[in-house]
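PROTOCOL LOG
Step 1. Enter all chains and additional molecules of the complex.
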Amino acid sequence: MAEAQAIEKKLDGLIGEYTERKISRAERILGPELYRIIKGIFTTPSSMFGFFLIAVFILVAVFAPQIIPPKENTLDPYKIRRDGFASVPKEPGTVWAKDPPEITWWYETFVGDEWVHLFGTASGGWDIFYGVIWGARTAIKVGLIIEGITLLLGIIIGCLAGFYGGILDDIIMRVVEVFQTFPFIMAAMTLSAILTPIIGKGIWPATIALVAFGWMSYARLIRGDILSVRERDYILAARVVGAKDSRIMFKHIIPNAIYPTLVVASLDIGTIVVSFAALSFLGIGTEIGYADWGQLVSFARNWIPQLSNYWWILIYPGMALVLFVLGWNLVGDALRDIMDPRMRNR
Amino acid sequence: MTQYIIRRLLLMPLTLIGVTLLIFGMLSFLSPAERVSLYVRDIPKNDIVMDSLIERYGLDDPFLVQYYHWLVGHQDATTGEWTGGILRGEFGYSRSANQNIVDLIKRRFPATIELALYSIVPLIGVGTWLGIVAARNHDKFIDQLARLFGILGYSFPSFVFGLLMLMFFYAEHQIFPPDRLSNWANLIVNSEEFINYTSLVTIDALLNGRFDIFLDALRHLVLPIITLSYINWALYLRIMRSSMLEAMNQDYIVTARAKGVKEKDVFNKHAKPNAMIPIVTMSGMTIAGLLSGVTITETIFIYPGIGSAAAAASTQLDVVTILSLVLLTGFILLVANLIVDITYAFMDPRVRLS
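Step 2. Run joint prediction.
Step 3. Record the structure below.
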């Protein structure tokens, strides 16, 4: 009897040792795995810098009309403002001669009371500063739209495959294979070239094309996670109680399987924006003069032999793109290290 | 093992059919009139001509009938002759390149192969080497530096990086020009006395004894190679680094150390070969990717490969050309995927023996 008590006491001690670690409220809400991931991203210096960059771009995007206002009564604020139609690019600091924007308060405080082309102009009088600022808006808008639709599509298809399994799963996985056979940019280029005459120029042909060839990795990811969650005991328990398929799916499986996919997807925005910019750089999708970084960089293509004289056409929009992507990649890189089981505790 | 290969081989035609269906499906987004109008140059377009063309080529037929005709071609009712059909190698006429698509591929593909051949070593070799260096100096300054370098490269869109290279090495210093050959060299290469053995300019130049042309071609290749390599290094660095760190944690490394193997040999002879497995499989896909045309890099450097042909075709909305090129690249990638999977199975005993 005394022996049993001793063992019990010892066990209590052991359990006590384990529960002694303080579990914060955040960890209780998020669960240990997600908590570890999120804590990891927010404590790595490089990923903090990444977050900072992303935050700056979001602020610029939100306050674009305050930074440099669009033309009054314009229908399309994303159209880059231009200063005449001069074919030769003007260097940064040149006075904005024709139809300058209203002076904003920050401009008055920091620069002066006359608009100059802060980043110069491209040939055709397109103001690069306007393009870069409003391009941040395009980038975030396009990134969110494409990522959102792609993710939704991927999740739906992946769930169907993972949950029902069997022949449906086989068919879906073959379809995924077919879609993945093509090189991403080339396939997206093809589809947007086909869609452009049908729905007209703008952000939509490229958006649809990038969605159509982007959903596969999410579908695969969530399918894998669902397959593993499906075998857990609590799903069996739910079935025993007689829960309907839809309830098991939405209440039990998806909430437990979705996080890795969500995290991976949210960090793909950088890549998505680059792909979109690449398409508009090639001249597919948006019309000339749309405030989009890829479009701006493509202005530099006309001046390749003299690019060292007209460096600003390339450098400013190029910098914006690189910093934007760098921000997402720094966070993503930290995340991959945290999530890679091989790299755990190292 | 054999079973696995047979299964893969049997699945391949199925995927190929899927690929062609998808491509043809994309084509049928366009209405018959839109497809015909690609080939009718008169403006305004003549309705009667258009209708007769639609009738003649059966563009109003049901999807599967059209797909069948696209695949195997039309049989003329009176003569019994077959025309068209991609299975018989008739891809059609490229409006954007003003020539038959088969000729276009024959002319452009060697350039892409050449670029791929020269890029393999700097791309995969240096990337892997960086990964090894980073792993050897794990968590030291060099490791962090290599990773920073890698992630910076990974963040450069290829068109920004390529244009920066052009700005510095071409606009500023005129060392490495774009395109495939200089004008004078191009004249010689296209002349009668220059014999095309392989269509790869560098090798042909050597075979023809024209060392100056060889150097010229090489000079034009430098920037695309640098661009392709730099933006891909981060990937190889990351994979090699983590795979190396994983290998160093295995039991056989402890065994090797316990029996007194020198640390250098542990690293190079025990850990490295095992850590290389993921690199081998990945390089297969990289090579296939290079062969299937690096659209953006080729476009920036005005390099006449199939990638830039596809870009030109799609900006001019030349659907027929771009679909043929996509079909070609899809086929290359499919075969490469198969080869990679089989090599992987041979290399990894865990797969081989199961």
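Step 4. Note key features.
The two ends of chain B are 7 Å apart (CA to CA).
The longest strand of chain B covers residues 74-75.
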